[in-house]
Design goal:
This protein has 201 residues and is mainly alpha-helical. The protein has 2 domains: 98 residues, Arc Repressor Mutant, subunit A (Orthogonal Bundle); 81 residues. It is 58% helix and 5% strand. Helix 1 crosses helix 4. It has 11 helices and 3 strands, in the order H-E-H-H-H-E-E-H-H-H-H-H-H-H.
């Protein structure tokens, strides 16, 4: 099945997949890693009648929220796995929430958890632009700088592919939130370096 960057939101036919994405957003999932159990609990807090046991509706049925997680991961590009027990919104996921914000708030309410660092995107941008990798980017030097790039993205050259992918997804979100085209160009530069150098490790 081809993944999509969209869910067809309808307040009359709201799905648990949409609820999962909304819950992750409310928990600050655009800014931080969120444990899946925390997301499950948030889903139940928002829609207890839908996600409780049939005979004991006051008890969360985590099979339902786990199925929603599986559906979102299988059918969309809205979230990514930062590690086994944590998820974060992708740039596509954040855009989808923003495009459907009024409908989601009207359907589920707005109980967003304040993120720890509201200026996290700007901090990340400033960190990269003040890092030695930025000088390499401006001079378009792509030779033997994978270690410098890895340091700027807070990983290591030997980090597995899923870690590098996660760092690029995080950077894409920063670019979109700040609408920073220069940083987008840097991301393209960084991806080329990674693709060029990863097989040499």
């Amino acid at each position: 099945m081809t993944k999509t960057s969209r869910l067809s939101f309808s307040a009359d036919r709201a799905s648990n997949s949409e609820l999962f994405v909304w819950a992750l957003y409310l928990l600050g999932g655009a800014e931080r890693d969120v444990d899946v159990e925390e997301i499950y609990l948030k889903c139940f807090d928002i829609a207890p009648a839908r996600l409780g046991w049939r005979t004991k509706p006051q008890i969360p049925d985590y099979k339902k929220t786990a199925k929603a997680l599986q559906s979102v991961e299988a059918e969309t590009e809205f979230i990514y796995k930062t590690h086994q027990y944590a998820r974060r919104l992708t740039s596509n996921g954040l855009k989808w929430v923003q495009n459907n914000l009024d409908k989601l708030q009207n359907t589920y309410g707005n109980q967003k958890v304040k993120p720890v660092a509201t200026n996290q995107y700007l901090q990340k941008s400033n960190f990269i632009k003040n890092h030695p990798i930025w000088t390499e980017y401006l001079s378009q030097n792509s030779n033997d700088i994978l270690h410098t790039l890895a340091d700027s993205l807070e990983c290591s050259p030997a980090s597995p592919k899923n870690i590098w992918d996660g760092r690029f997804i995080e950077l894409e979100t920063v670019c979109d939130v700040l609408d920073d085209n220069e940083l987008r160009d840097f991301m393209s530069f960084a991806k080329k370096i990674y693709m060029k150098e990863k097989d040499k490790l």
